[in-house]
Amino acid sequence: MSTKQTFVPKNPLCQIxxxxxxxxxxxxxDDDRWMLINHDSRLVRYDVAKYGNQExxxxxxxxxxxxVVQAVARFxxxxxxxxxxxxxxxxxxxxxxxxxxxxxRENLIHDDHPVVRSSVARYGNNAMRTRxxxxxxxxxxxxxxxxxxxxxxDRLISDNDSYVRSGVALSGNKxxxxxxxxxxxxxxxxxxxxxxxxxxxxxLKRDQSEDVRAAVALYGTKEQAHFLLNDKYASVRNKAMIRxxxxxx
Length: 249
What we know:
By secondary structure, this protein is mostly helical. The protein is built from 19 helices and no strands.
């Protein structure tokens, strides 16, 4: 959908500040929001779309600022999202993939922007994720790993991108974490530590990476946290103290 020319508001815009406009959009009446529909501030118009009714959405769907149209995609109706599914701005299409219907996500599964496909992978179903498991962008495959099922994670456990493998560790079963505990990337080992499996954390409490040991200190057992109170790095010792209730996070 090509972006249209902006509309002419039915009411003249009051000369009010951005802060006043945002408060009015949030707490005011539908008439107040209509009066603000062409305010100079995109944040005011965003809030008008966020709190407004369908009549407001019908007008702001043609706003020239993608941020405002994103609010329509998020807070508007199924029909608004249907119209916006082919919007020029990928952020608008991302919101459609997030808040839209299964059919709308299906239509966006091959979108040319990875942010949109990532949104489909996160908020869609496993049938959609199966079609995205070999996507060329790691961010898409990461969401397949994080929000998919174990069968999909099995396919991604040896992915060549450490970010994707970390997604497998963060959402997978213990067998996935056991397979990744010696991963070459500290990002993946940190994700394993964050799962808190005591035997795996025991192995990782002496990891060469400060970040991995800090994760063990925070998510491992109290005995492991006690061990890490003597770590040479303050960041690790601090996480251990948080785990033991010695300081607040």
